[in-house]
Amino acid sequence: MGKKRGKKGAGGGDDDWEGGSVASESTTASFLGADASPEVERADEWGEALDWTYESRGSTRERGWERLAGLLRNSVREECWQHAATVIGRCQAALKKGGATEATLAATALALHVLTLGEPDESGYQGVLPDLLRAAKHGKSAAARAAAVDALAVCCFVMAEDDRSTRAALDELRGVWAKRDAGAPLRAAALRGWTFLFTSLAALPDAAAVEALLPAAAALLHDGDVELRAAAGEAIAVVYHTCGLDQLEAVLEGEEEEEGEDEEEGEGEGGGGEGGEGGGEAVSGLSEVVGRMRDLATNRGDRQRRSRRDRAALRGAFRDITRIIE
Fold first, then answer.
1. How much is the pTM?
2. Block means of pLDDT (10 residues each) for the chain, length 326 residues?
3. Is residue 228 located within the same domain as residue 159?
4. Do residues 167 and 83 both lie within one domain?
5. What is the CATH number of the domain that holds 85?
6. Nearest Cα to Cα of residue 149 among 99, 102, 189
7. DSSP string, 157-190
8. Residues of 123-149 as b/e, b for ≥16 C-beta within 10 angstroms?
9. In 19-79, beta strands by DSSP E
């Protein structure tokens, strides 16, 4: 809430009158916002928005979170530092007890707040992690779960100081995007968060980890959702670029040989259409992954009908990804 200012008593002399005039002008300026300092105005706005998150009415709390997010997008670093613990505590409370909309807005505000602070804080990360994981898995709406996933990725990237924490977050996010009944928007958010955190690892994963990862991500190249397919392509491109072609080819060499016999048997039975309606077709081997991405870059082999805008977006995404891999 705005700070209350005490009234100055009326004076009798010229000096008093001049002082009263200055005070009156200052008061008028504060109401009209004409000469008020931007820093003071911003601090007052911040305090008022934060106060709204304590209100009993849910719609008022939501307005508070929207306002805080707007302020955070416009750089309020000093206010973040001054109220860091309070903001994080309010976000955690909203994630636990707030409705779907409030939890969504609070998760977004938390991510923006942590980005603005920009400082590693392992203990702080461990403090918010349980609430973010709970919201990501059991949030009251798909939007709330996706926002929690985004916040988890950002908080881990900024605050986590140990590779073990990052790897644990990667495992949690993979558990979300690998779950078929989680919903495509949530899976896409989890996969993009996973990709984002993968780039921050101090040490590359071993060959066994890559071998287990690539087929799972590549299978999503056949999913019916455009965003999920694009996120899968981005993840594969990042893994490829980070681990290197030689490593991936060595990892997949044995797998390609094993699948050769299965493919020959499948041809004899007349199977093998590309890009069916289902979302679980396996894509394994680097050459198959690149081939599938080429198809997606030109919309060849995709039997699912998409709007013109979706097809254009998908083509652009996979052209960029295919360039990275090739």
1. 0.69
2. 42 40 37 53 86 96 96 82 93 96 97 93 97 96 97 97 94 92 93 94 77 81 87 86 58 52 53 40 50 54 53 56 52
3. no
4. yes
5. 1.25.10.10
6. 189
7. HHH--SHHHHHHHHHHHHHHHT-GGG-HHHHHHH
8. ebbebbbebbbebbbebeebbbbbbbb
9. none
